[in-house]
Design brief:
seven-stranded mixed sheet; three-stranded antiparallel sheet; Aspartate Aminotransferase, domain 2; globular; Aspartate Aminotransferase, domain 1; alpha/beta; 2 domains
Length: 429
């Protein structure tokens, strides 16, 4: 969820929002003369402290701007789930997980992988994922966020130059921030801009990385991987790829878009997550043996994290075996997603460049997105409104995740519900 000031993209904080926050902070900051007489100024714990007032003021502003978020379990047909193949409730995976817990002998790891938390189950899972990705090695992290953050913070250094797509996920952005490397944010998918930037800096004696998702989680479109790899080869850069939303769904046997494009062997590192189509948790960084060994020694989010329990490795391996054999489910998912995209576009909805199972329905304002989401909920569909800072201002949307469990009838009902949502919102405007 980008917040770079350079190019527009998902979650980017633009100048207007920055100025608004500055104003908010100024309003929340007390007069120093008054602060001397306040309870917090004398060291007393009070509900009127600066940090408490700031929290209250910011929550009020979020509510006023219709950007406030809350936890919810909306009823209805789930349209926000990343369980793309329906494995989360698959009785085969449930049975394999239960068996692993029953026979494993322990449900906790006892420490980090470098202390008491390593287990043969994790080494077997890493070997299987490396085979899936076509790499020498793989290293498991307890979440996709930690994998991206730890990978980039370890690989990039001050003075290095990183080219990052403006729509990259927050975990990639935070990893780059921690690395303190220089960053050039290229407009989403703009290979002409990227090539010009690479050419301008080609004579610099520094490490260069190109960082991108393969399937963008808020746009539903693909990175031009063959072109990216060609540019990296031409200008002496390396590519780091996040396959979070493509593993299990795209490519031969669900191996991802890098495998489909035939470029998996040319990447410095590829991150495959397990919490989406594989219905588990965590992520594998797939790479050369040297990169994996380097991460064991330098990736702080790996070194200082308690290892996941061994039974989860068995669950992931079972999910991987099932997913690789689900060609029929993948084909059904692609057909169903295309049916939804075609139907919505025929009715004039703006889906951006979506060409996948992720279908963003652009609403514009937070108010409209919230109204559409509420209308769909009334019609039996569970979908959440996506608003800034997750997406840029002016591009609030519904993010529909099509899964293999949806049928044609449900897609047709959803199309009708979307039309009603738009009409209801327009009539109330």
């Amino acid at each position: 969820m980008p917040r770079w000031p350079a190019a527009p993209g998902r979650s980017m904080e633009n100048e207007a929002s920055s100025q608004r926050r500055a104003g908010r902070n100024a309003r929340a900051t007390p007069d120093p003369k008054k602060r001397a007489d306040s309870p917090e100024g004398s060291g007393a714990r009070a509900t009127t402290s600066l940090v408490r007032r700031r929290i209250a003021a910011e929550l009020d502003e979020l509510r006023r701007d219709r950007l406030y978020r809350w936890l919810d379990c909306p009823p209805g047909i789930p349209l926000s789930s990343n369980d793309y193949l329906g494995l989360a409730r698959d009785p085969r995976l449930v049975a394999e997980t239960a068996r692993a817990i029953r026979e494993g002998g322990r449900v906790g790891s006892g420490g980090s992988r470098l202390l008491a938390g390593n287990a043969p189950e994790w080494e077997r899972a890493e070997a299987e994922f490396a085979a899936l990705a076509g790499t020498e090695a793989a290293l498991y992290f307890s979440s996709g966020y930690l994998a991206n953050e730890g990978l980039l913070a370890a690989l990039a250094r001050p003075g290095d130059l990183v080219f990052s797509d403006s729509s990259n996920h927050a975990s990639l952005i935070d990893g780059l921030r921690l690395s303190r490397a220089r960053k050039l944010i290229y407009p989403h998918g703009d290979m002409g801009w990227l090539e010009a930037a690479l050419a301008r800096h080609q004579d610099e004696a520094c490490a260069k990385l190109i960082v991108t998702e393969s399937l963008f989680s808020m746009e539903g479109d693909f990175a031009p991987l063959a072109r990216l790899v060609a540019l990296a080869r031409e200008y002496g850069a390396e590519v780091v790829l996040d396959e979070a939303h493509s593993v299990g769904v795209w490519g031969p046997e669900g191996r991802g878009l890098a495998a489909e494009a035939g470029v998996a062997g040319e990447l410095l590192a590829v991150v495959h997550t397990c919490g989406k189509a594989l219905a588990s948790a965590g992520a594998f960084v797939c790479s050369s043996r040297a990169v994996a060994d380097y991460l064991v020694n330098r990736a702080r989010t790996f070194i200082f994290s308690t290892a996941a329990p061994p039974y989860l490795a068995a669950q992931i391996r079972a999910a991987l075996r099932l997913a690789r054999a689900m060609d029929a489910e993948r084909a059904h998912l692609h057909v169903t997603a295309a049916r939804l995209r075609d139907g919505l576009r025929a009715e004039g909805f703006d889906l951006g460049a979506s060409c996948s199972q992720i279908v963003p329905i652009l609403a514009g304002t937070p108010e409209t997105a919230l109204a559409w989401a509420e209308s769909l909920r009334e019609d039996g569909f569970a979908v959440r409104a996506i608003r800034p800072p997750t997406v840029p201002e002016g591009s609030s949307r519904l993010r529909v995740s099509v899964t293999a469990t949806l049928g044609e009838d449900e897609i047709d009902r959803l199309l009708e519900a979307c039309l009603r949502a738009r009409n209801r919102a327009a009539s109330r405007a």
